[in-house]
Amino acid sequence: MVSHGPESRPPASPRERVLREQTAIDALDKEIISLVEQRQRHCRAVRRQRETEPRSRTDLARENAVVAAYHAHLGETGTTMALALLQACRHCT
After folding, report:
1. Domain-located, residue 69
2. Residue 57 gets which letter from DSSP?
3. What is the DSSP secondary structure assignment for residue 7, as one 8-state letter?
4. Coil, helix or strand for 3?
5. For 12-53, what is each residue's pLDDT tens digit?
6. Structural domain range at position 44
7. Which pTM does this prediction carry?
8. Distance from C-alpha of 34 to C-alpha of 79, rounded to nearest angstrom
9. Alpha carbon distances (Å) from 62 to 17, 26, 66, 93
10. In total, how many domains does the chain have?
11. Residue 42 belongs to a domain
12. Residue 44 sits in a domain of what CATH number?
C-alpha cells in the first residue's frame, strides 16, 4: 500500500483531471473573449479615423496579412478563425 504524507494527495481521478482541464479552458475562453472585445474597440477606432479620410474603410492587404499569420500558425483552422475574427470586428458597433 502506498503511504501518502500529510502534504501529498492521492492521484486525481480521471474525472478530476478532466474537470481541472475544463476549468483551465474556461479561463482561456474568458481571456480570448476579452481580447476579441479589445480588438473590436481598436477596429472601431481605426474605422472612425478612416471615415474622415477619402479612402476605403477596409484595408484588404492588412486583412490578408492577418489571415496569412493565423494560417501560418494554425493551418486551415487558423484561416477559418481569422476570417471569423475579421468579420466580428468589421461589423462591430
Report:
1. yes
2. S
3. T
4. coil
5. 999 999 999 999 999 999 999 999 999 999 999 998 888 888
6. 14-90
7. 0.79
8. 21
9. 41, 31, 6, 20
10. 1
11. yes
12. 1.20.59.10
